[in-house]
Write a structure and sequence with these properties.
single chain, about 200 residues, alpha+beta, 4 helices, DNA-binding
Length: about 200
DNA sequence: GGCCCGATCGTCT
DNA sequence: GACGATCGGGCCA
């Protein structure tokens, strides 16, 4: 079952928690690519979050999708060469999203290998395909052309799965947001304990 | 394993 | 004009 709008119309931290274990799916012309979500970060919402891209400059051309209602895709270019994939959460006009930081490859692994530019024999370690926000976006085939796409549509969506028990989740601080003042220590990075596919 | 650095460019100041 | 919600390669151990 595909996750519905109501799933996303909640606080980013709640959505982040419930996204762990779910399957992110991309239906491409060449086939289906999917992976199980094992690491996420929550941004924005009702609490003051200086790390959120909507926090400092308000609404801009770059971040406008963040202000959509929950269930749309916010994706952006980072360091000039990678993309980070986010699921927008909360209601319209509230900048909030969940960054997907790592997934475990499930379907379309041959396509992931191609998208990542690996030669077949290079893949001793399937982990390196998707264990980071830039890597998984590349493997899944996500780029700026995904900007603003509705996750409640048929091209890119998230499939429900059995929910993860609380004792299998750890809450840590988010990565590379030293500039974010007091928000930098919020425990809003959630990981599936003991997953081999976490970011490094 | 660890640390350091360069790549590469849209966005904001 | 500076820099980032990153990555991979080079080097040392």
């Amino acid at each position: 079952m595909k996750l519905k709008r109501s799933f996303y119309l909640r606080q980013p931290l709640e959505v982040a928690r419930d996204l762990l274990g779910k399957h992110l799916i991309h239906i491409t012309p060449k086939g289906k690519i999917s992976g199980r979500i094992v690491e996420v970060e929550a941004y924005g919402g009702e609490d003051q979050d200086l790390a959120c891209h909507g926090a400092n400059s308000g609404r801009t051309e770059r971040n406008k999708a963040l202000y959509d209602k929950g269930g749309f895709i916010y994706i952006y270019l980072i360091y000039g060469m990678y993309h980070c994939f986010n699921a927008v959460t909360s209601g319209k006009d509230i900048p909030a999203a969940v960054l997907v930081r790592s997934i475990e490859p499930v379907e379309g692994i041959d396509l992931m290998i191609k998208n990542r530019g690996f030669r077949k024999n290079d893949v001793r370690n399937i982990v390196k395909l998707t264990n980071g926000p830039g890597k998984l976006s590349q493997a899944m085939g996500f780029g700026k052309n995904c900007y603003g796409i509705d996750l409640c549509g048929n091209k890119i969506f998230i499939k429900d799965a059995k929910s993860i028990p609380e004792e299998n989740i750890s809450y840590t601080s988010r990565i590379n947001i030293d500039y974010a003042g007091k928000a930098k220590n919020y425990p809003w990075r959630l990981i599936l304990n003991n997953s081999k596919f976490l970011s490094v």
